[in-house]
Write a structure and sequence with these properties.
single chain, 303 residues, 5-stranded antiparallel beta sheet, 9 strands
């Protein structure tokens, strides 16, 4: 019986070990493996060195979009524009005739002495009244004061300003207090833009041709010898321009204005009006006006 009992015991142990192995699942790769074996009534645990944990696969980034080469910023810092005219006042308007809006505007309603910019209104009146186009062209292109004075007197003086301000809708334009001083007419940058728009879009073809031919043919020096290529001409390089400039001194300030149209099909109207200290020279004051126009160039698509 002792031998038979030993045989049964051995068979029982073998069967128990086999059943235990079947019940324990195989270890997962990469995890801690625990092997359990039945050896009598004891449980044996074997530690296996865990494999280094795998880093989670990186989340695929969405395909990067190619950076579209953007246009240069057209935002113009109007505060910086004002600082370019040290110790003086400046008003600026850049009007885009294609977009039909002002893309830059700084103090557009501020009032200034017109100096020779009033010659635009004198030209409109004189041409409507039948004055010789050659005289009007000379008055504009060389900014001839003698011709301006003759036409001013011949066609109504201050009434010229009053009539055209009403006709075009120039709310900030007023005749001079002294009827004989046409250059003391009061203007705003917003109103000068309106005058250019009127010339380009509403006058007869003959009047438009006479005025714009004069402005595109402006001489480098005015009839008084003052260089009038400051502002627009000095700033815009090869971009087509037509200009009317204004300068005066010294009744409290030095006046330097640059105005005109730029680009293909006269797309842009630019007006820069300044009142600078009387201590400012024409050369240094003109350079400040040029710097203001240069600061506007990023807003001009034709550049």
């Amino acid at each position: 019986m002792g031998k038979v009992s030993g045989v049964f015991l051995l068979v029982g142990l073998c069967l128990g070990a086999i059943i235990a192995m079947l019940l324990v699942p195989p270890a997962r790769p990469g995890s801690e493996a625990i092997a359990v074996a039945a050896s009598g009534a004891s449980e044996v645990t074997v530690d296996v060195e865990s494999a280094p944990a795998e880093s989670p696969a990186p989340t695929p980034s969405p395909p990067s979009k190619s950076a579209e080469p953007g246009k240069p910023s057209t935002d113009i810092d109007t505060k910086a524009l004002a600082e370019l005219v040290d110790g003086g006042q400046v008003s600026v308007v850049l009007y885009d005739r294609t977009a039909k809006k002002s893309t830059v505007s700084l103090k557009s309603e501020r009032s200034y002495t017109s100096a020779s910019l009033v010659k635009l209104l004198i030209a409109l009146e004189a041409l409507q009244a039948g004055a010789p186009p050659s005289s009007v062209q000379r008055m504009l292109s060389a900014s001839d004061d003698d011709i301006a004075s003759r036409l001013w007197t011949a066609y109504g003086g201050p009434a010229i300003v009053t009539r055209w301000a009403l006709k075009i809708g120039l709310g900030g334009t007023h005749p001079p207090e002294d009827p004989g001083r046409w250059g003391d007419t009061r203007i705003t940058a917003a109103d000068i833009v309106k005058i250019y728009r009127y010339v380009l879009d509403q006058v007869s073809a003959g009047t438009r041709t006479t005025i714009m031919r004069a402005l595109s043919g402006a001489t480098e020096s005015g009839s008084d010898g003052i260089r009038q290529y400051f502002g627009v001409p000095d700033a815009v390089g090869s971009l087509p321009w037509s200009i009317k400039q204004g300068w005066a001194c010294c009744r409290g300030s030095r006046i330097l204005h640059s105005s005109g149209v730029l680009g293909k099909d006269n797309r842009y109207i630019v007006v820069v009006l300044t009142s600078q200290p009387t201590s400012t020279t024409y050369a240094s004051g003109g350079k400040r006006v040029t710097d203001v126009v240069k600061a506007l160039l990023p807003a001009i698509d034709d550049m």
